[in-house]
């Protein structure tokens, strides 16, 4: 039995304008894996809805699939083939069955519905978080705009950051990256963009973090603009003047379709430039922007950048380098001069405001209180108080505490919110390894969404979980008070509890998407697949197939096994590249899938571009199998 779907691809490629090379690529033939399954369930050359239900239950491990589900799949597929005169009316032929398997809308590789318990306090979830959400590019000289905010929200991001600064005449509020050459955008315009796009991708709450540098008068004005623009969407604390002093945060279910403000309670404004040293340092480093590529870390931070392979820069390692760790130690106070990204810092700048300038209007809009004692060490900021709060730590601060006292982070994040932001010298909007933060309980791992690269791909993939709603339940082992006091230590390697078996079968869609000369001027492409696990250090593993030469529809039939010790935090990374003997390999697509969301069996895996947008029609047929203990939430 050997079904076919498409006609053969015949192509000519000119060489030096003198002669042509002719290639005839294979047809899209049903692979042996599909034929074997079809033979198992087909009767008289057709899989009926009753047999398709068995296929879903047994091969695809969809235990809850019903006959109605199978009938819907058959009806969907037959409707697509309504132009065929010889199609059966009661089931799927081999070709129809193969086409169904290649349709990501009905045979995707991930769960697409919200299935986590959404009634727990917000501190029990990872939250999709952006950093400097208004920037269109690098951190020093790019434009500020509402468009990146719109793009992030439509992707599912739930935490948006706005830096609020006075205009030159101190009468207006502008949003921009302070002490840089970034061009400002109007504050109200950003809020309008948030209001209009907050719930396009998800009904769950959006949090706006204000990093404000405003006079008391402008703080009052900011409160008024916030109230006027957001209207009934704005969620206020029950007691307007107590600045959201809750013993626990509300649940995502409680604050659906609402927008929350998180910032420091207002202090007395002290006019004057406090950060001249920082400004000088930023000015001296701005040349880094021109020399750094997206996804590459500046030399001034890590020293020499990691050498790029044909795959480009990899996800940074789990443990900080000695040089990075020494930049921001946790055993001494973090002063304004030492912190290289003060706009993200939660230190309580200034003295307590007198009663007549305490800005009750501004206090009344704050739902999530942010801050830490001025001059406190990083560990001292992680003390659990009666009232919950949000604390922000820089990337190096997190790594230092994680190295010396990881239990402090995990205990703090049981009830409180911890936000991690990129190191201040990532001028080119590069990102870091999010697993360091996730494995220590940090809920708001702030990423530069305007960039691209493997760390950002991992974050995009991670938040595809739970229906892509922007809230992902934290694993139970990060709650020691509910786990018999047992403390999780990410540094300690653990025995594998599950094994993910992956088979890359075939791929298609590049010719239709890109055209025949996109990858190679003189021949069809030579595609190969790299399959890897992103997660804790013990689980990280990378494999790749051999290139298939001169094929637009490559068939790899390659199998790989991945033993995994912490599957709750693991993601499957898939990348396709086109092999080039004389130049850098061309990018052909990528995706990241949380292990907890993978559907087993024969699945269609759509691929994304470098920025995380879907490459229409470009997809792989893969087979997944999970062996071992059950895991999840």
From TrEMBL:
Pfam families: C2, EF-hand_like, PI-PLC-X, PI-PLC-Y. It comes from the Eukaryota. Its EC number is 3.1.4.11. It is a peripheral membrane protein. It is an enzyme of class 3 (hydrolase). It is found in: Cell membrane. One of its GO terms (biological process) is lipid catabolic process. PROSITE patterns: C2, PIPLC_X_DOMAIN, PIPLC_Y_DOMAIN. Its main location: membrane. One of its GO terms (cellular component) is plasma membrane. Residues 281-364 are annotated as: Disordered. Keywords: Cell membrane, Hydrolase, Lipid degradation, Lipid metabolism, Membrane, Transducer. Residues 336-352 have a biased composition (Acidic residues). It catalyses: a 1,2-diacyl-sn-glycero-3-phospho-(1D-myo-inositol-4,5-bisphosphate) + H2O = 1D-myo-inositol 1,4,5-trisphosphate + a 1,2-diacyl-sn-glycerol + H(+). Residues 480-609 form the C2 domain. This is Phosphoinositide phospholipase C. It comes from Marchantia polymorpha.
């Amino acid at each position: 039995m050997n079904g076919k779907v498409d006609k053969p691809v015949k192509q000519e490629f000119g060489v030096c304008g003198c002669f042509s090379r002719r290639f005839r690529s294979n047809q899209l033939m049903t692979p042996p894996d599909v034929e074997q399954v079809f033979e198992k369930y087909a009767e008289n050359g057709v899989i009926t809805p009753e047999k398709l239900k068995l296929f879903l239950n047994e091969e695809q491990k969809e235990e809850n699939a019903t006959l109605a589900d199978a009938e819907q799949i058959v009806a969907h597929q037959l409707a697509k083939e309504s132009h065929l005169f010889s199609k059966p009316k009661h089931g799927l032929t081999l070709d129809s069955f193969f086409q169904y398997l290649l349709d990501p809308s009905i045979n995707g590789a991930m769960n697409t519905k919200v299935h986590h318990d959404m009634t727990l306090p917000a501190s029990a979830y990872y939250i999709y978080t952006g950093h400097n959400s208004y920037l269109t590019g690098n951190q020093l000289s790019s434009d500020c705009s509402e468009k990146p905010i719109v793009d992030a929200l439509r992707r599912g991001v739930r935490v948006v950051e706005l830096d609020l600064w006075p205009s030159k005449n101190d009468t207006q509020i502008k949003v921009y990256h302070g002490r840089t050459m970034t061009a400002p955008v109007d504050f109200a315009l950003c809020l309008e963009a948030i209001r209009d796009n907050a719930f396009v991708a998800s009904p769950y709450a959006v949090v706006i973090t204000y990093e404000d540098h405003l006079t008391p008068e402008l703080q009052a004005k900011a409160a008024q603009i916030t109230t006027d623009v957001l209207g009934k969407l704005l969620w206020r604390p029950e007691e307007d003047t107590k600045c959201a002093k809750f013993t626990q945060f509300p649940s995502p279910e409680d604050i659906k379709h609402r927008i929350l403000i998180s910032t420091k309670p207002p202090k007395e404004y002290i006019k004057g430039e406090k950060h001249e040293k920082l400004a000088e340092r930023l000015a001296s480093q701005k040349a880094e922007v021109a020399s750094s590529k997206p996804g590459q870390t500046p030399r001034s931070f890590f020293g020499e950048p990691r050498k790029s392979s044909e795959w480009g820069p990899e996800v940074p390692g789990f443990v900080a380098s000695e040089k990075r760790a020494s930049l921001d130690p946790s055993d001494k106070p973090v002063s304004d001069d030492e912190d290289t990204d003060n706009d993200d810092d939660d230190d309580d700048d200034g003295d307590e405001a007198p009663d007549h300038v305490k800005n009750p209007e501004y206090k009344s809009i704050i739902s999530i209180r942010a801050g830490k004692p001025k001059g406190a060490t990083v560990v001292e900021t992680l003390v659990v108080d009666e009232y919950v709060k949000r604390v922000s730590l820089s990337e190096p601060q997190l790594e230092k505490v994680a190295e010396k006292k990881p239990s402090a982070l995990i205990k703090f994040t049981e009830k409180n919110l911890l936000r991690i932001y990129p190191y201040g010298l990532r001028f080119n909007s590069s990102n870091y390894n999010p697993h360091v933060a996730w494995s220590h309980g940090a809920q708001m791992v702030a990423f530069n969404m305007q960039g691209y690269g493997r760390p950002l791909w991992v974050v995009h993939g991670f938040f595809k979980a739970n229906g892509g709603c922007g809230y992902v339940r934290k694993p139970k082992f990060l709650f020691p008070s509910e786990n018999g006091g047992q403390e999780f230590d990410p540094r300690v390697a653990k025995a594998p509890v599950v094994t993910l078996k992956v088979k890359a079968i075939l791929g298609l869609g590049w010719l239709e998407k890109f055209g025949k000369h996109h990858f190679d001027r003189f021949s069809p492409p030579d595609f190969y697949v790299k399959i890897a696990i992103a997660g804790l250090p013990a689980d990280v593993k990378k494999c790749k197939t051999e290139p298939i030469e001169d094929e637009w529809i490559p068939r790899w039939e390659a199998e790989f096994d991945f033993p995994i010790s912490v599957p709750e935090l693991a993601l499957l990374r898939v990348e396709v590249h086109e092999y080039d003997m004389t130049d850098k390999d061309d990018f052909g697509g990528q995706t990241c899938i949380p292990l907890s969301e993978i559907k087993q069996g024969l699945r269609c895996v759509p691929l994304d571009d470098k920025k995380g947008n879907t490459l229409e029609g470009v997809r792989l047929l893969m087979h997944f199998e999970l062996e071992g203990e059950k895991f999840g939430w």
